[in-house]
Design a protein that fits this description.
The protein has 531 residues and is of the alpha/beta class. The chain has 15 helices and 23 strands. The chain has two domains: 34-266 and 482-489, Aldehyde Dehydrogenase, Chain A, domain 1 (3-Layer(aba) Sandwich), CATH 3.40.605; 272-453, Aldehyde Dehydrogenase, Chain A, domain 2 (3-Layer(aba) Sandwich), CATH 3.40.309. The termini are far apart.
Length: 531
């Protein structure tokens, strides 16, 4: 499939006339086919005007129509075949098996949200019927349901070109909610973005929804992102990336005359706590799982376990010895792009300059900079150093982590209290350990979005119960998730209808309940119609 390098604005390929850029194969350094360029201010205006024009037709379309859109999108993603995998592999150096699995996840997400739309209860309809003869005042008929907020700007992630990219959760759930989407393509994989943008355009055409419901603007500089966030027609932003990038977008959005929400999923060190029973029973096997998690995807996961604490003793020694042994055997691997590799090298070099930080284990084979390779690096230090060095509380994206022994449980609790907001925390223990450390769990409940028992945060199941978020700085708003069906709630708001005739109400609020959704009617959950 040949690439045009054009932007896609409301289904129309628009020539790229701004500052040019190309994609680079991180494993070889070769420049890849395709000439791309930053979108201009005029193209930003065109995309958002098209999105605004599509707002009412899209949000007023039936849930079934939007479900058919997502089904069609799933088909279009698969129809791209090996060409999509080949281009993504060339642009990211992610293994083909990983990309094949991620494509399956993207398709699953489309199907999952299609099912959510068809079931209907996500709209959370609430109905309180009138009591006209109530004394001393009549009670009015009051009904509430979620409604789409309008055009959404999406910034895709570098590390998930499919599942958190152009056709990722942000885009899919915004379209499901009835919101037009303008995606800023990621400059590290623009060819992949172009192919997936075309898939969305074809899916919209199949179900006769407005072409302005989706646009893709490419860009390598920060100016494009700023223009999209500042544009008065943008109503919300979805972002997955670094704390620095997310905070910059949050500040831009807050400075608008009409501030808008930025739903940013950002950095996290995802602490791991090893409790005594688990260390005594399986210190060696925990080390194996830990190293696998640290190195999954070359450590390029926002849920990478960057800090691990355990109680000192024989089990701890077994764990650290096995960790050092395994780390030495990890071969250097290629990161997503040069910028990430340089940030990893800079971050780990800064760690090495800290007093009291020592190497526990690292790759013994030299990394090849020409292949954008980096080594696995595991460090050890004291709990006091971790608590007192703010640098160690900041994410370093890549296959590195720090382990520290604690002399008693109070040190575990003190560290947990000191944590900023986190996406995940993991506790390895026995049932007795959990009972003995209930206070640790209670602390983490206030710090973390997802607490994992006897596992690690890497590997996220897109499902209704998943919460991928956490208190700041893990995310911009701790209530919302960026993965799972609840992510749709970022792009809707409640609208209340008082005293309306039944035919003029949204379908989910009508007496007959034509959607079949579960509704809260006069305080009782029911799918029954109102007599």
């Amino acid at each position: 499939m040949s690439l045009t390098g054009n932007h896609l604005i409301a289904g129309i390929e628009t020539p790229a006339t701004g500052t040019p850029f190309t994609a680079r194969n991180p494993a070889t350094g070769a420049t890849l086919d395709g000439q791309f360029a930053d979108a201009t201010d005029e193209q930003v205006e065109a995309a958002l005007q098209a999105a605004e024009a599509a707002c009412d037709p899209l949000r007023l379309s039936s849930p079934e129509t939007r479900a058919q859109l997502l089904d069609a999108l799933a088909d279009e993603i698969l129809a791209l075949g090996d060409a999509l995998l080949d281009r993504a592999h060339a642009e990211t150096a992610l293994p083909m098996a990983r990309l094949t699995g991620e494509r399956g996840r993207a398709v699953h997400q489309c199907k999952m949200f299609a099912g959510l739309l068809r079931e209907g209860s996500w709209l959370a309809p609430r109905i309180d019927t009138a009591i006209p003869d109530r004394q001393p005042l009549p009670k009015p008929d009051v009904r509430q349901v979620y409604s789409a907020i309008g055009p959404v700007v999406v910034f895709g992630a570098s590390n998930f070109p499919f599942a958190i990219g152009v056709v990722g959760t942000d885009t899919v759930c915004a379209l499901a909610a009835g919101c037009p989407v303008v995606v800023k393509g990621h400059p590290a994989h623009p060819g992949t973005c172009e192919m997936l943008g075309g898939a969305i355009a074809r899916a919209l055409e199949k179900v006769a929804l407005p072409a302005g419901s989706f646009s893709l603007l490419q860009g390598a500089g920060h100016a494009l992102g700023g223009a999209l966030v500042r544009h008065p027609l943008t109503q919300a932003v979805g972002f997955t990336g670094s704390l620095k990038g997310g905070r910059a977008l949050m500040d831009l959005a807050a400075a608008r005359p009409s501030p808008i929400p930025v739903y940013a999923e950002m950095g996290s060190v995802n602490p791991v706590f090893l409790l005594p029973g688990a260390l005594a029973e399986r210190g060696s096997s925990i080390a194996e799982a830990y190293l696998q998690s640290v190195n999954m995807g070359v450590g390029q996961f926002c849920t990478n376990p960057a800090i691990l604490l355990g109680l000192n003793g024989p089990g701890w020694d077994t764990f650290t010895q096995r960790t050092a042994e395994l780390a030495s055997g990890v071969a250097p691997a290629t990161m997503l792009h040069q910028g990430i590799a340089e940030a990893y090298e800079g971050g780990t070099e800064a760690w090495k300059r800290l007093p009291g930080l020592q190497a526990l284990g690292q790759s013994t084979t030299a990394a090849d900079p020409a292949k954008t390779e980096v080594p696995c690096q595991i460090f050890t230090t004291s709990i006091d150093q971790i608590e007192n060095q703010e640098t160690l509380h900041r994410e370093v994206f890549g296959p590195c982590s720090i382990v520290a022994p604690c002399s008693h449980r109070d040190e575990l609790l003190r560290f947990a209290h000191s944590l900023e907001g986190q996406l995940t925390a993991s506790i390895h223990g026995t049932p007795d350990d959990l009972a003995d450390h209930a206070d640790l769990i209670h602390i983490l409940e206030r710090k973390v979005g997802r607490i994992i028992f006897n596992g690690f945060g890497t590997g996220i199941e897109p499902c209704p119960s998943m919460h991928h978020g956490g208190p700041y700085p893990a995310a911009s708003h701790s209530f919302f998730t960026s993965i799972g069906t609840a992510s749709i709630l970022r792009f809707v708001r409640p609208v209340c209808y008082q005293g309306f005739p039944d035919p003029q109400l949204p379908a989910a609020l009508q007496n007959a309940n034509p959607t079949g959704a579960m509704r809260l009617v006069n305080g009782t959950l029911t799918r029954d119609p109102i007599a």
